[in-house]
User: Which sequence fits this backbone?
């Protein structure tokens, strides 16, 4: 199904670009704006997902899939259901990035960072929509957890792609090295719980102090 | 024209050819778990598969698809299944089910499961081998027909279709999966699919999966207008529900929807995901009474890549710049394998308005066939224009046509029998268009009549070999007007005849007309304009020349193609203001003032940097400019980056500006023939298994700006390639990049192999997941945290 991409977080892009606070010049800000618009126009956001019952051993019902590592199990603790999801920006972003790299590395770098931020936006939008739906049923969502986070093996990305049939449903396949193509793609697990669960810190880029934070300049965080 | 009866038409009964419905849906009902390989059941419980096939035959399916969809080497890897065993078992199940009926068995082939180059890493040649293995086993096992289905990448289908045509004698159906916008996930349009697959000799083309019959219908309609082949449709039972994983259309509704297909004469149909024997039974019942024929397809001249279809129904510009003839810088790029330079020439022409790109890589000392493959792959990775394969060597032509993902033009044959007999069969095999030069072994005839006679002969030959008339273009040949003045008129006369009497498209290389005259532009554009009026629709020109494209643009207004002069207005609005700006911007060119080259570099002003470099070359040598101006300027930018006064985007911007200066300097050196300014050769590669290359590309830009010659091996580079290149090119510094933890191993492997080879070189490594420690551990000489650090290390190595 179609995904929704409606905004790109400038602070997140600046973070990806290596900005550590301090002056952000007007040219870069304008270029991020221009390229963000291009990314939004070029992207073909798509999402696919399935809802599973979770068995006691964390096995996803009807499959042989058990997410690996302790971190994800901690997140899924007490969840009777979970969502497997995959979201992508589509192949045109991939193609365009390849072409821009030939003629204009500066724009290519910004484009790459904008696209990274864009895929997060697609995931967030999906999650918010889903959250609204489950809230109505008196249920709650956990955080979004992807293979490679914490101690969950990156290789399980492949299992998620197979189960969701991402190749057929959203045009995402894996390279022989296990990399998802198009590269601006995310797979994740979201638990569905009957109690609200505490969510993690959302990151400096969602903080209003982003540009002037003294902690960030020194590569630290305020510890929230 | 080849009037042989289509092999699918022959299989029809009562005017229809009914296929089966879903296999996966039936298997899930029988208890297949999500994520399990359905192919295994053919071996473990063959009776289940046979029973499903039998139900479809009883429902009216005339062709059942064997359970071989994913039975390829790649997908079976890591399971205990083998390709031959699975296919043999699957075909046996299907054959048992059709026994005693006249239903047939198809070898069903789905996507390999790994994306091909350039977005993926699987090569076209490997894809061909994977399919070849399947089709050979399938034919031997007794399949009656081969089906490629659920494909989203036209390149993959091309590999499969070629494998089937070259290694079996079975008919082939190809169906692809489209989204509602009429394109596949990789961007392929139905029109492109039709043009390419019909040209390559498919027996039927069509659409399956992803959408329900109502959503597919508008796309199928478009397909039926774009091909004369039978159109094949297998729709899903509507759209799936992600919670229940079921489809939303019942059998009778599905059948009702399929009637609209029969009404426009689409007669090969079945079902895909969610459909069962019941659906097929209902479809057969619903459509059999409908006797409508397909509307006649109006044949057009179409050239394409998967995502770009160029219909020649007006003037279409063929860009001529990818050609080494008379271009020293281009020759150097070919010799050094500098594909980025060639890619840039492609993008530049596309941006200037070219519709098609001519590709010529023939020059002494270059293996033309190998280079053609490399260059075509490079261009199609960054640019979606259709290509014109330009060579006199049939082997290079075939290599180019084979590797090109789309429908190309071949440039060219002439009236010589030898050329015709060698090249036209290749054109036919790959479904290309072809240019016939109106000349033969006796040279260029001096009258229009004689040239026309040759054109007619080429057309006859082409058509007798089964090449469609609309795919034959004629080049009536432009002669230099300063040498043979009367010939310009003859050429125009011949052009008019070819257009009006033969009804063929005209190609002309235009710029030759003005050779040897001053102010060539006037003669060239004037001749071009006259030729377009006479019937030239495919001028081969330099689209970067503004006046030439202006003439094309103006012609399109007067011919009525550019409706409301929209494109013309867009092109010319603001043209006068631009000139004013150019003259006022002319400033001095000192070193570091606000008007100097240092300033231009630091601010990333590309055009200004290039202009200043040209000025500076009047007073200074190339090396002086590099060492005294450019590198110090870059160093200052680098320092500011380290102090975090500026960030990566500005650093790259400055590098890109100084890149322009280096281009000017390179050209100046080539013109003088005084050697090179290279400070040393450096290999850069993203290691095997990794395809993240933006970091490596950033490093490349920066290194080049310090005067190093970078040999960019690209991404997913096997260790052997790095070692071989390092030895062959005697490279003293190798840079390796990896972004993923999973690919750090191949970095280690590459380092080990370099060390084991005994070749003396320094190794610098970098990438997101790398650390100083790990770099040491795997035996690299340096860990570079960023591009600047790589440059610093290069300075150390090369002094």
Assistant:
């Amino acid at each position: 199904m179609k995904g929704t991409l409606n905004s790109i977080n400038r602070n997140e892009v600046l973070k990806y670009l290596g900005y550590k606070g301090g002056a952000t010049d007007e040219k870069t800000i304008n270029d991020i704006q221009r390229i963000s618009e291009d990314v939004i126009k070029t992207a073909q956001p798509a999402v696919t997902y399935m809802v599973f019952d979770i068995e006691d051993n964390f096995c996803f019902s009807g499959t042989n899939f058990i997410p690996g590592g302790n971190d994800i199990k901690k997140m899924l603790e007490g969840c009777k259901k979970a969502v497997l999801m995959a979201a992508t920006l589509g192949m045109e972003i991939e193609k365009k990035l390849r072409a821009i790299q030939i003629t204009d590395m500066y724009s290519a770098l910004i484009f790459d960072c904008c696209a990274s931020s864009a895929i997060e936006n697609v995931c967030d939008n999906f999650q918010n929509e889903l959250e609204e739906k489950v809230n109505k049923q008196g249920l709650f969502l956990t955080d979004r957890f992807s293979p490679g986070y914490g101690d969950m093996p990156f290789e399980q990305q492949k299992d998620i792609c197979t189960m969701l049939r991402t190749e057929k449903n959203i045009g995402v396949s894996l390279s022989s090295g296990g990399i998802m193509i198009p590269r601006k793609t995310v797979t994740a697990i979201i638990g569905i719980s009957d109690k609200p669960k505490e969510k993690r810190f959302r990151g400096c880029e969602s903080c209003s102090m982003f540009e002037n934070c003294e902690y960030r300049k020194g590569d630290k965080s305020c510890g929230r | 024209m080849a009037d042989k009866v289509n092999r699918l038409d022959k299989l029809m009964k009562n005017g229809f050819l009914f296929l089966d419905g879903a296999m996966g849906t039936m298997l899930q009902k029988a208890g297949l778990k999500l994520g399990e390989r359905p192919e295994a059941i053919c071996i473990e419980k063959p009776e289940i598969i046979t029973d499903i096939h039998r139900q479809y035959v009883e429902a009216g399916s005339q062709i059942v698809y064997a359970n071989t969809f994913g039975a390829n080497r790649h997908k079976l890897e890591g399971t205990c299944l083998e390709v031959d065993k699975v296919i043999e078992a699957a075909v046996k199940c299907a054959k048992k089910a059709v026994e005693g009926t006249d239903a047939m068995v198809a070898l069903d082939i789905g996507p390999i499961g790994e994306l091909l180059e350039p977005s993926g890493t699987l090569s076209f040649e490997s894809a061909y081998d994977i399919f070849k293995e399947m089709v050979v086993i399938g034919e031997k096992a007794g399949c009656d027909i081969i089906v490629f289905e659920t494909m989203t990448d036209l390149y993959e289908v091309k590999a499969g279709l070629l494998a089937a045509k070259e290694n079996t004698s079975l008919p082939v159906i190809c169906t692809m999966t489209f989204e509602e916008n009429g394109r596949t996930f990789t961007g392929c349009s139905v029109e492109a699919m039709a043009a390419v697959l019909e040209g390559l000799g498919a027996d039927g083309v069509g659409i399956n999966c992803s959408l329900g019959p109502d959503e597919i219908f508008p796309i199928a309609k478009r397909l039926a207008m774009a091909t004369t082949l039978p159109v094949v449709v297998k729709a899903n039972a509507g759209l799936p529900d992600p919670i229940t994983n079921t489809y939303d259309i019942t059998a009778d509704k599905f059948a009702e929807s399929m009637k609209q297909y029969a009404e426009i004469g689409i007669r090969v149909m079945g079902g895909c995901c969610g459909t069962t024997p019941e659906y097929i039974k209902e479809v057969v019942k619903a459509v059999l009474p409908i006797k409508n024929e397909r509307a006649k397809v109006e044949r057009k001249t179409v050239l394409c890549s998967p995502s770009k279809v160029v219909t020649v129904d007006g003037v279409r510009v063929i860009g001529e710049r990818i050609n080494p003839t008379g271009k020293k810088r281009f020759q150097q790029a070919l010799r050094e394998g500098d594909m980025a330079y060639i890619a840039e020439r492609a993008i530049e022409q596309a941006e200037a308005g070219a519709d098609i790109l001519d590709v010529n890589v023939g020059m002494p000392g270059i293996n033309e066939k190998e280079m053609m493959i490399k260059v075509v792959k490079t261009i199609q990775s960054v640019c979606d224009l259709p290509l014109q394969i330009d060579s006199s060597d049939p082997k290079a032509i075939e290599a180019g046509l084979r590797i090109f993902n789309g429908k190309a033009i071949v440039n060219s044959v002439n009236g010589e029998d030898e050329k015709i007999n060698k090249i036209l069969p290749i054109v036919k095999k790959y479904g290309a268009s072809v240019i016939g030069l109106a000349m033969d072994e006796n040279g260029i005839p001096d009258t229009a009549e004689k040239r026309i006679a040759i054109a007619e002969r080429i057309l006859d030959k082409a058509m007798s070999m089964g090449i469609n008339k609309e795919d034959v273009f004629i080049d009536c040949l432009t002669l230099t007007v300063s040498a043979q003045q009367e010939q310009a008129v003859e050429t125009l006369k011949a052009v008019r005849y070819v257009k009006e009497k033969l009804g063929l498209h005209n190609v002309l290389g235009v710029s030759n007309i003005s050779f040897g005259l001053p102010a060539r532009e006037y003669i060239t554009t004037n001749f071009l304009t006259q030729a377009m009026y006479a019937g030239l629709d495919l001028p081969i020109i330099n689209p970067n020349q503004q006046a030439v494209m202006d003439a094309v643009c103006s012609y399109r207004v007067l011919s009525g193609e550019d409706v409301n002069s929209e494109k013309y207005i867009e092109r010319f609005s603001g043209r006068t203001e631009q000139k004013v700006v150019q003259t006022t911007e002319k400033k001095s060119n000192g070193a570091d003032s606000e008007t100097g080259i240092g300033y231009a570099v630091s601010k990333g002003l590309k055009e200004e940097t290039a202009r200043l470099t040209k000025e500076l070359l009047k007073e200074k040598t190339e090396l002086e400019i590099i060492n005294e101006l450019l590198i110090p300027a870059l160093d200052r930018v680098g320092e500011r980056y380290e102090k975090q006064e500026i960030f990566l985007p500005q650093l790259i911007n400055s590098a890109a500006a100084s890149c322009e200066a280096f281009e000017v300097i390179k050209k100046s050196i080539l013109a003088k023939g005084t050697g090179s300014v290279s400070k040393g050769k450096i290999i850069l590669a993203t290691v095997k298994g990794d395809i993240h290359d933006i970091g490596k590309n950033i490093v490349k830009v920066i290194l080049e700006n310090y005067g190093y010659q970078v040999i960019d091996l690209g991404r997913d580079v096997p260790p052997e390639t790095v070692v071989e290149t390092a030895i062959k090119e005697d490279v003293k510094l190798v840079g390796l990049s990896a972004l993923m933890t999973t690919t750090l191993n191949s970095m280690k492997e590459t380092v080990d192999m370099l060390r084991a080879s005994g070749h003396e070189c320094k190794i610098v490594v970098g990438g997101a997941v790398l650390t100083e420690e790990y770099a040491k551990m795997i035996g690299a000489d340096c860990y570079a945290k960023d591009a600047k650090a790589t440059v610093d290390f290069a300075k150390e190595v090369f002094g």
Notes: Residues 3 and 46 of chain A are 4 Å apart (CA to CA). The longest helix of chain A spans residues 105-136. The longest strand of chain A covers residues 79-88.
